[in-house]
Design brief:
The protein is of the alpha/beta class. The chain contains 12 helices and 11 strands. It folds into 2 domains: about 160 residues, D-Maltodextrin-Binding Protein, domain 2; about 120 residues, D-Maltodextrin-Binding Protein, domain 2.
């Protein structure tokens, strides 16, 4: 009898957390959900987050509030969400920098991407392009390299922020091609793009969504793509490798994460709901029109993507001796 009671108590102890997690998922969300975006309104990350939030509101019958909190390469917003209650009501719409490469660039990062977050889903990938002003004399990547080398120390390059893929891609390109360009970080894609238009900077690596309309209007030129292959949305833009510059790849991804400790059942529900939003033809169409491709997948696949991106950039950052604080 005593053995049976001990067994029953042990079984109950095992089942109670499972029942609690399942109950949490069935009642979630119980209040508005915050989706914190670490870039300004109108940036490529913001565009994707707002499209997804709109679809989630319909599924959850609950408000999904997009909050823009740019600064420090996305790490201020990331740290805030990492410290938030792990109940599924606080989400971070991140990208390569705060989700993978920030630990190698900031000496005192107040969170650890791989342990302080519960990955939910990878949302979109974005073509990463080198853009210059329409009045710049270069029409090709080779002409750009020749022009910069002929005017050492004269040119600035804009980035969408310290520790961003925009920053890292140019530093890697400078190293590979032997270029002298001065870094001027801005608080996101819109501000960096305006600097290019104003002549305050002469080059910018950016998500295509940030420069798409200006390129279509002839106000900017896109010289190349830092990806392994051409983009479906940019079939006429060659990769750097095609143009003879090898070893410069900086693919962009966006992903949504929650604070570590968020119940697995809640993470599973969020993953399912967001994937359903991303599967809608109208959503995919809107994102593709903005220059993005849907990724989707499981939380485990986002975790693997974050780890792979960290492993790929860590030796590069150390070799180039890059620090931003």
């Amino acid at each position: 009898m005593r053995t049976a009671l001990i067994f029953a108590a042990g079984a109950a102890a095992t089942l109670l957390p499972m029942i609690a997690h399942r109950a949490h998922a069935q009642t979630f969300p119980t209040k508005p959900v915050r989706l914190v975006v670490p870039t300004p309104a109108g940036s490529s990350v913001d565009i994707a987050a707002r499209v997804i939030a709109e679809g989630l509101r319909e599924r959850m019958a609950q408000l999904v509030l997009v909050e823009n909190k740019p600064g420090a390469g996305g790490t201020i917003a990331a740290a805030e969400v990492a410290r938030a209650a792990p109940d599924g009501h606080h989400l971070f719409a991140g990208f390569n920098g705060p989700l993978a490469t920030a630990p190698f660039l900031f000496r005192a990062l107040p969170y650890k991407p791989l342990s302080d977050f519960a990955p939910v889903v990878a949302t979109v990938s974005q073509p990463h392009v080198l853009a210059v002003s329409a009045v710049h004399p270069a029409r090709t990547l080779a002409e750009f390299v020749a022009d910069v080398k002929g005017k050492p120390g004269l040119y600035n390059y804009a980035s969408v922020g310290n520790a961003s893929a925009s920053h890292l891609a140019m530093e890697l390109f400078k190293s590979q091609a032997g270029l002298g360009l001065t870094h001027v970080p801005y608080s996101g894609g819109p501000a960096a793009t305006q600097a290019l238009l104003a002549g305050d900077a002469q080059a910018l690596f950016a998500a295509y969504a940030n420069v798409k309309e200006l390129a279509a209007a002839g106000r900017l030129k896109v010289l190349g793509l830092v990806e392994a292959a051409r983009s479906r949305g940019l079939p006429d833009v060659p990769t750097f490798a095609e143009q003879g510059v090898r070893g410069v790849q900086a693919p962009l991804f966006n992903g949504i994460v929650a604070p570590a400790g968020t119940p697995p059942a809640v993470v599973a529900k969020l993953n399912r709901d967001i994937r359903e939003v991303l599967a809608e033809a109208r959503v995919r169409g809107r994102l593709f029109a903005a220059g993005m491709e849907v990724i989707g997948g499981t939380p485990e696949e986002l975790s693997a993507l974050m780890r792979a991106e960290a492993a790929r950039w860590e030796p590069v950052i150390k070799r180039l001796v890059l620090r931003v604080d």
